[in-house]
Every structure is written in structure tokens, then in C-alpha cells.
Amino acid sequence: MNKIFQLSASLHGYSTPSTQQQLQCQLQFKWQKSLCNILATSGANNILNLIDRHGHRIDSVALQGACVSLGWSHDGEWLVAVVESSPLLVVWDANIRKAIAPIDTNMKGLSHQAWNSTSTMLAIGTTKGNLLLLNRRTSKKIPVLGKHSKAIVGLTWSKDDILACASLDNTFTLSNVDGDTIFQMSLKGEPSRLQWSTIRTPTADSPPSPVLSIVLANKTIFFHSVASPDAPIELAFQSKYGSIVAYEWFGEGFIMIGFSSGYFIVVSTNMNEIGQEVFQAHNHKDSLNDLKISPALEKAATAGDGCVKVHELGDLKDVYAILNMEEDRGGLVGMEWTDDGGFLSVATRGGAVYTFLSKLPVVGCASGTVIAYVTALREITIVDQNKTGFTGMTFMYKKEVEFEPSIVAIGPTYFAVGMNTRMNFYRGGWPKPAVKWNAPKPKLSLKPGENVFQKDYIGTIKLASLNSTMAAVLLTDGRLQVHSIDERAIVLPPSFTKIFPQESENLVITCVCLTNELLIYGTETGHIHHISLEDWALVSEVKHQSTIQEIYPQPRRARFIFRDENGDAYLCDPVADVLFSIPNISAKTIGFIWENAQTAERSVFISWDDMFITTHAYIPHSIKEQQCLALGTTKLPHGMKPLIFSDGTAICQTPGGKLSHIRLTTHEPINLKNIDERNEKAVGKMFQMLYTLGRMTDIWALTSTVTSRKAWTMLAEAALHVMDLPCAKRIYSQILHDAGMVITLNDILDSTCEERSVLAAHVCVVFGDFDRAQELFLSSSEPGQALIMRRDLMHWDHALNLAAKLNPVEVSLIAKEFAARLESEAKFTEALSMYEKALETSTRLKIRETEREDHQVACSAGITRMTFRMGDTTRGMKMLTGVEDPKLLSECASILEGIKMYTESGSLYERAKQWEKAAEVYTKGKFWGKVAPLLELVTSPKIFLQFAKAREASKQYEEAAYAYERGKDYENLVRLYVEHLQNIDGAVKIVRETRSRDSARIVSKFFQSMKDYKSVVEFLLMAGMMEEAFELAQHHDVMEHFGEIVQNEASTEMLLNIASFFESKGQPLNAGIYLLKAKNYTKALRMFIRCPVLDGKSVELAIDTVGLAKSDGLTHELIDYLMGENDGVPKEAKYIFKLYMSLGAYRDAARTAVIIAREEQMLGNYRTAHDLLLDNFKQLRKSKAKVPADLERMLMLLHSYILVKTLIRINQHELGARMLIRVSNSISKFPTHVVPILTSTVIECHRADLKKEAYEYAAMLMRPEYRQLVDTKYKRKIEQIVRRPDKEENTVTEKLSPCPYCKYMVPDTSLDCIDCKNHLPYCISSGKHMTIEGWSACPSCEFPSLINEFKAVVSQTGACPMCCVELKLEDLKLSSNPEELLRGVKERLETAAPNATGDSKEDQKGDGRKEYATGNSSTQQTEKNTPTLTGRDLEMPFGTVSEGKQAAAAAMR
Description:
Distance between the termini: 101 Å
Largest sheet: 4 strands, antiparallel
Oligomer: single chain
Helix content: 25-40%
Low-confidence stretches: 389-394, 432-444, 1392-1453
Strand order of the largest sheet: 1-32-31-30
Number of strands: 63
Mean pLDDT: 83
């Protein structure tokens, strides 16, 4: 804010320093209302001074006394001065700029005045409490005597013409324009500073209520609401603030209050937050003298401490300016804003008045990139945006002008300023002036700012427009004058002038715009004329219905925008003959600016009003014809005026005489952080806006960042709307990867000519706007495309109309398709008409004869169907005579079926060989005689069931049963079998197969009548009648049968009931079984113990019970039973083994299993012993426990013996012989079959040519104890072997193979490595030791085997030689990790065999450890290795009974 002028103290009669008398006379000053051109002041010299805006005194009036009050009328025409001790009012008239005759009030002691803000009423108060109302317009005076009892100290008018008057009698009154008191109220303190305002009521729908505010005793503020006069409000403030100096209302119910201590605060008066402090600041250190607000500027000023601080109302923390009064810091006494906020005057105690320019008239203009604007009252600044850029404008030069301009115009070469009727033209100085090519070179001065021309017009200038050489000046009377600017440029004839309108034309021109080629002006009648500057001929005329107010041409284009008197805006393109209303234009819109950037890819412009700038884009070509889109708004700071719009930036002139750059929100750089892909629609709209603005570089930069398909699809659709197919194709191809759309767009691009309407039509088809596409096709050079489109879309009604006009040959085909469509929509009359039309016009078709015949047949078929549909069945049947087409027959039959003509329908179905439908139709018509012959040809259950019911009703039960069975209605079939056909076996069979409950009830009733209660129970249970079945089983003693059926499905309660029944019948075994299933383990065990030990079943169930119960008590109870402590009869050892197995004590079970297996082995039950050991081995392996060595070796020995038969069967005699040698080396383990085993060994060894081993075991057989037991058929042969032994060595030497651990070569059947001392795993198929190569395993028992030997055995036996599970050759596979399996074998076995069985070390050594030393064996060694089986061997392995119980209990835990 710059100081414009200063009124000295001497002007007001104050000396330096001021005397006390001068200081007592307060300086009065007031700015003119509305016009804001004159400042009135009066001081100690009793002279009224009238000062203009530049500080020059216009007039002065001598007063008869000190001026106590100054006041301007609301229109600024009258100034009234109230003079102390004078009844006269001094009046100064601004229109004539002179004082007029004073007004005599006939009252003494005039003290205060107040002008009505909306009318010509003046109120004057006196020190006696009297009031005078004066009407300036009518000169009527209304004296009101005794309004108050003491001096009136405050007057103010409301907008509703209510006068508030406050007095030193501590009352205030409200009066109307006639002076009548309408309200009066007493106050608690001395009133001052009266102001009217409005506050919002709590009810949102109610209008704001008028409120009067009064300062009381300079401490509180009193509020009187007109709406609630009986509920006044008084606000008090903190004591630290001091006394109230001044206050101002602003905004919606806010008050700014200044206090003597230097504070100023803002409080709210809205009812829901009244008295709340919104803002507080200690603005001045010592004191605050005054506070004033300018609503026009939205600024507040506070005076104190010798300075003025100006704040923005929008943000009071922001100090806009600080004005220091360096020359007079003695004290500031007051401030005054002009109504428009343009000036702020500050008065000092010493009598000086400082005036600051706070707001310039926002007058400026732009041409291209050059701006001319007012920067001081009489100063113009020229700026070229291209030269200064956006980083900070620097002026090209400033020009001081002769007067304060109200109009600024600029062209490519000159600029002009004007006021009233005068306009001065100046040389711009940026480009050279235009000169004709054949003219002599002018001698011109190119000095910027040179005044080249000045002109006075015959009327007041309304606006002006310049081009390179001419000026078009519009006057307020509607006349337009076009003339040359600089005659020295010799572009135009000297003193060239054109006047519009011509005398013969009755026109009033309202607006004008001048370009280098055209003169464009609008008229009051709504016409816009384009005049060529070359020949001054009318080249274009646009007619509108309302008065044209403004015209805004687009640079370098023929388009322009204009506004009419209604505030509506239109965009016109005379070249394209386009005129349409611009949407989203408010009535408050002030102006428009086209973007003038040379690189602009789109036609973009902005509109603005007092608050916002709106960005618009004009799309001249789209599938919806022309469009104008509002893209977004940008906040426009208060008071700014946009001058240039370029590259997304609006360059605006500020009220302070500066230029400000505002980046439009639509053109802001993209911030990736602000892109929320979850809101796909918002991202898509952003893409569309960027595309519309032509910001393609910004869009392509987001391809790797934005992944939303919906957003990119919205962008592609926006490109298609403006027929930018290459852009849309790029998006669908590179980003969306939509092959279908890419192919579609390629087809359009390949097939479309350059005609825009054809291209737009194809794009409309893509969007599904077919009516618009048809309209475009028909208006193009390819109307046939419309017919093709409608046919492809099957819009047959449209296609038929188009074909009749464009291509009558295709009417027949389209009529047929249309008829089919109508038929599907049940519009049979129209369909019949179309079929007939298609048949009639079929001769026009230009197709092959066979195709024509097919077409005619299809039309005839349609006519036949429609005949039936219309109800003419007789004619329809005649038309079908001789027809053999199954499809047509079926269709017609279906139609007849729908109208319940079943006989005819069925016959047609039969002709079409649709037996199912024929039978169904006959069934509906109950023509059973026609149904029966068709039953063998149909499969539909529904037909069979309907036929069965009909046959049953006629007591044809056999046929009914057959039909029920074919229809799978087993319930009715069972019923027929039982009730009518007495086929009980068939009924039972069906019930057991189907498990039908209803059928089961029927059968159960039959068996109940036959007293076959077991069957009754079975079928009652099938019927879900468990309770009835239980009761019947109880009464008829078939509970065991009942229990067998329900044991897996019965509830616990039912199982206990069954057990209770058996217990009552003395059947503890059965009772225990059901108690066990019911998980009542204690009672179940006792039931099993009560049972006699016959087949051992009860003992085994008792063991299972203990295993499931996991109870110490039950375990001890069972052990006592097995030891015989209950009945004195010890039970077999196998039960102890099963107990261990049940309890999961596998190691103890293994020890027991070895004992049992040895016992079985002694008895010759080798397979039983083998399976027992195998099962225990598998259990130990499953529980990941180590397998005892004695168990493993015993299993190996038994398996070797059992394997012999298999080896002999597959002709592996040598292996069979070596397995027998392995067994014979431990012959003591086979006491029952010593002689047969040795005999087999001798025979196989002799057969395998193992002569030495054959002699050794033959000699053993010749011992006296065995000789008599040898079979006679082998005895002679064996004696010969002994008597005549072969002295030669064996002709067969055993092969060697590598040890799987250390690779040392070991004989094939040796199971110990003499090098690494490891016991070797054996092959279950051959008895050999395993090798890493060829390692395989049984899929069931997982025992190892060599793959080739395994396949040989399985191919012969079809089962595993160890577990006997059936196998196939394809089940046998090489192991992928034999080393890991080998480690597992070693880890499972105990390293040393415990001597649990009582065998001697020599005996253990004989278990397979003499395979390659058998030649040294002797009979004595064999006898020595045969132990005597003592009673200890048959006892339990855990010693005494009590020890056994403890061990079992421990195992259970």
C-alpha cells in the first residue's frame, strides 16, 4: 500500500507543536460514499476542505464554528456538516462541486447525524435529546421533540429503515421513518458506537435476524434482536483487554473488537457459539486507537503506536501491510476506508491526514502475450509474458498518462487509454508497425510509449479494441467509430474513419472486437456482424434472439464466444456453421479468455466470476457433434481479474496493481501420491480431463504406474468419443491388452474412408448408440452401411424399412428373419404377415435356385406354424399332408399340444419319430391304448408312472408292476408285490437294494403277519423305526439279530439297552460286546471275565477293552484274570502277547512273541510263528521302536524255511539248497521235523551238485536216532551217498556279491560281513543278502528284495513271499534312495541280541552265520547246538506274577 497524498496539519489549522486548544478540537474527515472520489476534512480552523483522489483541494467552505459531525448521503451527492452551536446544516453538493444554501433545523445543540443507507433520509440528534428527520428529496422536516431526556450520543439506520437512537439517559429507542417510537429500553451503562447487523438464527430455514449492537460504558457490548426484543444479550471481556475503542461487524455474524491495551479479538454472535473468541492478537504494544474493516477488500486495519497494520480477513494472522507514520508518531485518532476499498485515510492527533492507495481500479487488457494494465492512478505498465516467463514478471516499461484511465486497450502494435470521451494512443514498441510492401519507408520514431494520437469522441467511451493499425471505439450511445491510429504508418489513407451503423441503419451496437482481418460487432437486436477490413463488406451474420453483450474471438481461429443480456454464453464457429449454448455458465460469470499458447492441441478457454475460474474445452468433432465441457474450477483470489490464459496458467491483475500467476487445478502437475487407484472412477475422470486438455505426455508417463483397467478404459472411450482411433488403439493394445477392441478398431481404420460421418457412425456402433450410427450412415456417402449394421444387430424392423428404401432385393431375407423374431415374441399375426411377405418377394432374390428353394421351404414352414398358432388347425393339418420334415412336424405337434389337441399332436410326434413326446401327449389325453405300443420305445419314468397308475386303477397289476419297475417307482412296485401279486421275494430284494423306508414298512408289516420277527426287525430298521424294532426284538428274543444290524449306527443309550438285555438273559459275552461298543469299559471287562474260556474270544475282547480303556485298574484286573488268580487257571501266553500289543508295549510284546513263536516252531507250526513274528516286526517298526535281534533272526530263519518251496517251484534249486542248509544249521529249532528237513536238505544239495553238504547231512541222517525215521523212498539213496562219498570238491561254487555297507565281496547267502562286521539285510525273494544295486521293497510290508528275484517270485506266485499280499509286476519298482533305506534297516535293529530266550551264544551264532563254513559242520556240533527246552522257556518272561502286573501297568502308562 503506497501513500498517495498527505494533508498537512496547517491545512486544518494545527500548528507544530499543536496547542491544547487545537488538540481539543477533533479532526473530522469522511470519504464520499459510492463514488469514492472526494475526501471531506475539517479541523481547528473551522474550514471544510474537499480533496480529490490525488490530494488536490477542490473546494473549501468556511464554517461558523467547529465541525462536530460530517456525513455523506448514500449516493455520494450531498455532504452535510454539523456545526457546533449552530442550528444550520452546511450542505455541499458533489454534482456542482459547490456549497448550497444551508438548511435551518430550528434546533439548538446539534450533535450527531446519520444518513439512511438506502434512501435520502437524514437523522440529526441534539444535546437536548431532540430529533430531526430530513428528507433530502422532498425537503420535508419532521421534528421529534423529547425523544430522549438527555443528549443523543448515537444514531444509526437499519436496512429496514429503522432508526436506532441512544442517549446519555441510558436508554435507546427504535423509530420508524416518521419518527414514531416503536421500541424503547433502558441500559445499564452509557451507550456509544451503535451499529446494525444480522445474525443467524438456530433454525436453518429462518432468515437472518436484524440486531443492534451498542457499547456500554466502553466495557461491554449489548445486543438487541428485533426478532427477540425481550431476550437481549450482553458480552463482557477480559479485564486485560482494557476498554473498547472500536468494533466492526463482518462475515456471517462475526465482530472484530479493538481494545485500548492494543488487543483486537474476533467473536462469533451466532446463537450456537455466541461470545466464543475465534481469534485474538496483541497487535499494538502500547495502545490501539481505531479499527476499521473494508468488506470490498476483505481487509481489516488497526491503528496504534504510530502505525497501521492491515490484515487479511480470510487469515487474520496474515499481516498484509504495515503503514508507519514516521513523521507523526504522536498518536493516531482515526481511519476511514473508501467504500470500494481503494483508499485508506489515517488522521493524527496533530491534524495531519495520510491517504494510502489500497486498491487500484482493475483495468487492464492483453493482446497475444503482451499485457497493459494500471499500476498507479495515472500509470500504465506494459509486460510481455513471452519475455519474462512464469518465474517472475518484469515490466518492459511504464508509461505515465495524463489522466486516470477507466479503459485500457492494446493491440499488436499500439496501446490506448481512455476516460469519458477522450482516448490517447501510444506506440507499444514491441513489433515494428505494419507497412505496405510498395510504400516508401516511413520515418517513424520507434520509441516505446510515444503518444502517437489522441482523440476526443462525441460520446462517452464504452470500450475499445485495437489491431495492428486501427482502433474500433464503441460509445455508450451505441455508435461505433473505426479509425486509423498512426497516420504516419501510411497503411491506411490519412484520417481514415468509418462510422457504424450507417445513417440508413437502425442499429444499436453493444459490443465490438477488432482483429487484423475482421471487424466483429454485436447489436441490441441480437445480430453479430463480421465486416471484412479489406473491402468493408459484410462477410457473415449471426442472428440471435437477445441483445449481444460481449464477444470473445479465439486467436488464429474463426470461432468466438458471445454473451447475451440474459447472461447466457454461446460458442459460434461461422466456418463450420456451428452455434450452441455453453453449458455450466452461471449468471455471475464476468468474462472469457481463450488459451493463446501456440502449442495448444485443444480449443480450451476459461470463464471467471468473483470467486472461481472455470476451465472449458471445446471439442469440434465427436460422435455427438460439437461439445463444450467444463473440466474443473480454480479458486480466484478476491478482486483479481484474469488477463491471459496460456499453458494452464492464468495471469491475473490484482487490486494492488500487480500481476499474479494462478496455476489452474486442471493443469497442475500430476502427483502420484494423490492417485488413489481404489477410486477407479476418479482416476478415469482425471485421465479424461488430461486427454481433453491435450496433456498426452503426462498420460503416457503413467502407463507403468496406474494399473486400473477401468481408468484406462474410460480414457480409451474418451478418445473414441472424439474419433481419435489411433490413441484408443494404443491404449487397448499396449495397456489393456484387449485384442477384441484392437481388431475392431483396425477393421474400422482399414475400411473407413476419410469421411468423418462414416467414422463417427462406426464408433457409435462400438458404443452401442445404434440410432445415432444409423443417422450418421444415412447422412454419409455410404448409406448402405446402416442396413448392414441393422442386419448384423438383428434389428429387423429397422432393417426392413431400410431395405425397402436402399436395397429392395434383400426384403425377402430380412422379412423371414423378422418373422422368426416376431414368432419368438409371440406376435403371431405379424409373424404370419412377414412370412407371407418373405414368400411373396422371394422371386426377387439374386441367389442360386437351391438356396431359393430352401428359403421358400423355410417361409412355408413358418406360415404353417403360424396357421396353427392362429388356431386354424384344420388348414394346418392339410398343409402338413405329405410333409416328412421331422423338425416341422415336431414344432407343429408342440403347438397342438399347447392347445390340448393331444390326438393330433401325438400323431405328429409319431410321424416325427419322437416316441417319448408322443407317449407323453397320449398320456396327457389318457389314450392308454395308444401309449401301450410305445412303451418299448420310451425311457421317461414319468410316462411309465402315469401308465402304471392307470393300469393299476384298471386292476392290470402285472402291466402296472412292469411300468412301475421301468419308472423306478419301487415303493409302489413293492406295494403291488405284497398286496396284489404276492411276490414277497421280489419285494424283499427291491427293499434291500433300494433301502427305501416306505417300502421297508410295507414289507415289515407282511413279515409281522407271518411272525418272521427277524425279518420284521430288519425291515423296521430300514424304515427308520428303531424303537419299535427294539421292543419287538425284546419281546420275541431276536435281540442278537437286532444288535448285529444296528451295532454301527446305534446310540450309546441303545447299545447299553442291548447290553442290559443280554445281561438279563445270562449272555455275558454278548452283553460285554455291546458294553464295549458303548465305551463302558469297566463293566464290559467284567462281562468278558465272567465268560468261560472256550474259543478265547472273550479273552481277546477283554484285552481289546483294556487297550481301549487305558486304565491301570482295568489292566491289573485283567492280568489277575490271565494269571489265574480269580479261578486258579492260568491262561495261554498268547493272551499276554495280545495284551501287550493292545497296550502298545511293543518291546514287551516282542519278547512274548519270541516265546510264543518258539513254542509254535517247536510244535511245527512254522507259518503261524512266521506271521506272529512278522506282525510284531511291523508293529515295532510302525511305533519307531528298535526290533530285537533274536526276533529278527528267528523271523529270518522261519522265512528261509518257508521260502524253499517257492525257490524250488521256480527252479532255483541251488538257492533252495542253501536255504535248507541255513535251516539245518539250526535244526534244533525245528524238533518236530528234524528228519524231513535233513532229508530235503540232502536231496536238494545233491540235486544242486553240492556234494560235500549232501554227504554231511546224509551222514547225520544215518545216526541211529534218525535212521529209522527216514522215508523209505529216500533211505536207499541217502545210504549210497554215505557209503560211496564223492572225493571231489563241489562242482558249484557260491557266487560273491558286494556288502551293501563296505562293498567287500561276500557270498550271496551269507548274512554277515567278515570285513565291516555288519549283519546284512536279506532279500525276501531269494534269501540272499541285499546289495545297493537292484534294491527294491514290498509296497505292503516294506521288506527289502532284489528287484530281479522279486519279479521272478511275483510272476510265479502273484504275491509277496513275506506278507503274502497280492502284487502285480507293475507294482515293483527300484528304490530311488537305497542308502537311506539301508541306514533305516540298521537303525531299526538292536546292535546285540538280548539273551531273552535262553539260547546259548553258540546257538545264536548258528542262526545263519555258517553259510560259507558248512563243510566243517558235524553231527556233534548240531547236537550241541540243539538245546533242551526247559519249563522256564515256557514261562512268562517277566518272572513272578506281581512283577508281570507291574510291567504291564508300566507299559500301559
